[in-house]
Amino acid sequence: MRITNVNGVFYDSNAYLIDAKRKILVDAGIDGKRVLKSLPQDLQLIVLTHCHYDHISAVPDIVAATGAKVAMHKDDIPLIRSKKLSASAMFGVGSPELKIDIPLNNDDTIDLGDCSLKVIHTPGHSPGSICLYDESTKELFTGDTVFEGGSFGRTDIGGNPEHLINSLENLTKLDVSAFYPGHGNIVTENANGWIKASYVNAKRMIF
Ligand SMILES: [Zn+2]
Ligand SMILES: [Zn+2]
C-alpha cells in the first residue's frame, strides 16, 4: 500500500492517495482543482473521515473529473448540509453540495483489491468521525481524532468530549505502526506511544 499526501497547506486538510489495486483517496481537502493535479484518472473511491468543510469541499470537482464514489460514516452524512456543523461557516462559505454513495458503519471493510482498510467509528470530533486501519501493515488514518505530538481533535463543532475520550481509549488498544492525521505530519515513530499521549492529554485537558 503506497500512501502519498497530496494536499495539506495552512488550514486545509491532508488528502492521502492510496495507490493499491483500487486507488482511493482518504479525505479530499478544500481545493479540488489543486488536488486533482496529483490524482490518477482511475481514482475509484473517496473516503471522508468526517463531514468538515476542510476535508470535503474538494469532493464535487474530484468526482466530476474521475467519477469516483464517495463514502462517509452514516452519522456525519446529515451534517454536511449544516453550515455550522460542517464547519463551512468558519470558512465563511455555504456547505458544499455533495452526494455520499456509500454510508459507512463501524467495522465495515473497504476493499482495495490487494489490501483492505477497516472502518473504526471514533465519534468525538464529530458524531460520525472514523479512523481507517490496515490490519496487515498496522497503519492508521486518524482524521481529526489524533494528531502528532499528543494532540487531539477539538470538540466544539458539534463534537462531544466524552465520546472523544472513549474513542481515543479505543485507539490505544490497537497496535499501530504509523498514523496519518488529517492535519500536520505523518507519525512513523512511536505511534502507539503518541496515541496514548493524545488519550492522556485529552482526559487531563477536557475534564
Ligand atoms: Zn480538519
Ligand atoms: Zn474536522
UniProtKB/TrEMBL annotation:
- Pfam families (alphabetical): Lactamase_B
Cofactor entry: Zn(2+)
Superkingdom, natural source = Archaea
Q: InterPro entries annotated for this entry?
A: MBL_Glyoxalase_II, Metallo-B-lactamas, RibonucZ/Hydroxyglut_hydro
What keywords sit in the KW lines? Hydrolase, Metal-binding, Zinc
Q: Which SUPFAM superfamilies match?
A: Metallo-hydrolase/oxidoreductase
Q: Please provide, alphabetically and separated by semicolons, the GO molecular function terms listed in this UniProt record.
A: hydrolase activity; metal ion binding
Q: Where is the Metallo-beta-lactamase domain?
A: 12-183
Recorded hits in Gene3D superfamilies, A to Z, give: Ribonuclease Z/Hydroxyacylglutathione hydrolase-like
Can you say what this protein is called? MBL fold metallo-hydrolase
Species in which this protein is naturally found: Methanooceanicella nereidis
